[in-house]
Specification:
Layout: E1 2-8, H1 9-16, E2 19-21, E3 27-31, E4 41-45, H2 51-55, E5 61-64, E6 75-78, H3 82-93, E7 108-109, E8 114-115, E9 120-121, E10 126-127, E11 132-133, E12 138-139, E13 144-145, E14 150-151, E15 156-159, E16 164-166, E17 171-173, E18 179-182, E19 187-188, E20 193-195, E21 201-204, E22 209-210, E23 215-216, E24 221-222, E25 227-228, E26 233-234, E27 239-240, E28 245-246, E29 251-252, E30 257-258, E31 263-264, E32 269-270, E33 279-281, E34 286-287, H4 288-299, H5 301-307
Parallel strand pairs: 3-4, 4-5, 5-6, 7-10, 8-11, 9-12, 10-13, 11-14, 12-15, 13-18, 14-19, 15-20, 18-21, 19-22, 20-23, 21-24, 22-25, 23-26, 24-27, 25-28, 26-29, 27-30, 28-31, 29-32, 31-33
Antiparallel strand pairs: 1-3, 2-6, 16-17, 33-34
Amino acid sequence: MKISPSKKLKEIVAIINAEFTGDPNHIVSGLNEIHKVEAGDIVFVDHPKYYDKALNSKATTILINKKVECPEGKALIFSDDPFRDYNKLVLHFQPIKFSKKQVSDTAIVGKDTTIMPGVYLGNNVKIGDNCIIHPNVTIYDNCEIGNNVTIHANSVIGADAFYYKKRPEKYDKMISCGRVVIHDDVEIGALCTIDKGVSGDTVIGKGTKLDNQVHIGHDTVVGQRCLFAAQVGIAGVVTIEDDVTLWGQVGVASDLVIGKGAVIYAQSGLNKSVQGNKTYFGTPAGEAKEKMKELFLVRRIPELLEKIK
């Protein structure tokens, strides 16, 4: 999430009443979670496991719960609860304002686009030309839809990220301030759900087609001309390159990369990144030919046991 206009460090710490190290006039231009940070961003970190990752990231301001040495050219903000204070900053710069109209006054709909009955368009939604939005589709605030896009009935675009901090008494929700961006010539089936980014964009590339009941998690970036069959489930922060095919009920764990032109057979589960232009199968998924050999050998186990008796 970009902060516009940018703020000085001393203005940021005043919002959350925190101590800091660094130049009071150090510029802060955005808020981001660790997977998406850029220069100018604030990132939060509240676990020793991730201190080094945050301090060495592209983020130039780190909201942290331990007093450590400040890296050169950066600033540190000290907090007893960085997760809480990060949420405070998100709500300060992007307050939640629900539209109570079926189509918000700030929504923009392009030429020759059809909006069918029951569709909800939130604040600042943008839809391009020649689109068809079928009945009961919900498009949350700030989402952007390109030209020649079809979204079938009851799909939800831009729901909150599934991102929680576990506390002894409850789960605390991270406030989502990102968007969903859908490029031209995309078709989204019925009952699909595409979550907004935590602080950046969830992206569906040009020409990609989703079957019914597909779920795409926060901050996932899907390339061009991909095909996802029914009931595919993709976790957050996944990068799927161009021309990837995921057959029915494929599950993809978070923070993985699927290379260009990869094909994943139905009901496979990915728990690690895979190279492009190969075919995969199984749980955990491996190259399809090798997995088929494994299955063949497993079926022979009773026969082999009989032979060694």
